[in-house]
Amino acid sequence: MVLVAILVVIALIVVNALYVAAEFAAVSVRRSRIQQLAADGNPLAAWLLPVLESPEALDRYIGASQIGITLSSLVLGAYAQQTFAVWLTPYFAELGGLQQIAAQTTSTAVVLLTLTTAQVVFAELVPKLVALQYPTQASLYTFLPMLASLWIYRPFIKFLNGSALLVLRVMGTPYQAHRHIHSPDEIELLIAESRDGGLLEPDEHRRLQRALRLNLRQAKQLMVPRRRIAALNITTPLHEVIGIVAQSPFSRLPVYRDSLDNIVGILHTKHLAFALMEHKGDLAACNVVGLATPPWYVPDTTTLEEQLDAFRDQRTHFALVVDEYGALQGLVTLEDILAEIIGELPDENQVQERPDVRRRPDGSYLIDGTVPIRDLNRELDWSLPDEGATTIAGLVIHEAQTIPEPGQRFAFFGYKFEVLRRQRNQITALRVTPPVKDEPFPAG
User: Fold this and answer.
1) Would you say the pTM of this structure is higher than 0.70?
2) Alpha carbon of 390 to those of 71, 237, 330, 387: distances in Å?
3) Which fold has domain 357-433?
4) Cα–Cα distance, 91 to 389 (Å, whole number)
């Protein structure tokens, strides 16, 4: 008799564990993995996939598991109270000299405490951890029992889900069905966990993290600033234009009249080369303005994600960036956005060493004040913020809340800054010392 009771208790704990594993596996399994298994011919995956793809079906699936957990827990408690608690009552009465009611109460409390501990460990924590660690296997192995439960509990699921929706409606809380979606912050956390677990290399993690943050960065943070734009004056003779194009590392050059605020077109060096070949080098037959394409302007507040979509829709790689007053602020290219994600793209026409960033033997860097912060972060693997400023000089001014004099020193974000040169209101050169790797940066 006792053996039968023990087997019944074990069976109820196993049933409870199955429902817990099914619930956690259903909400944590990757739908793409189940799709792949279904495509490979796995019948369980093919049956489970419609449940994961439908928020309503997933709601019913989780509802069935919750009903199963509740029922198995209630049956376990009631059964143990009617068997083990009754059998142990005489022993407590004899050992402690207790009256019948006190002995029965003590026996019930001991049995329920013991079963609750066993249930929490073996029917809650263990299956939950297994389901979270192996969600694909757990979701497949528990699907057939859950399929039967869905059919058995169908009227209860409909009634209980409807009652829950009614309560939410009374509370004024919008209802959202279970779906396998994650916010960008959650995805970033999952990526970080994959890196910590050794599934992603540091470079892969960095690229994915940058891609997720494209919607948080604006064109003005990535653009080439106005003063660094390489452009052609419309009055420049064509033979000089050819020389400028030949020496330039850029494939597209803005063409302006009088000033950069009046861009008349964008000259693609390929179009100039084709025109010269077509006219057999006859410079008089080539017209720079006729070869240039119309300029395309975008607001400086455009996010990089929006700009990337715009480049695809417009079928172009080059855009001029203007502020809210229409004044030219800089330019942004498709290559700039791609470099923001995957790192600097090598170009055989560009010089590899930057004259405006020079490393010193002591580990510090001599940097031109106009160097963009994003270039330093990308090329030197630094982590300077660029929300409040675009250039390294702008960052120092933003944090110092003043325009420093040469010789002044500051410490921001773990980096040491020393102003070397200043022309009027512009910092032209700085010495920057990054924090030593794996060593705390001294305060002060």
Assistant:
1) no
2) 61, 35, 12, 8
3) 3.30.465
4) 78
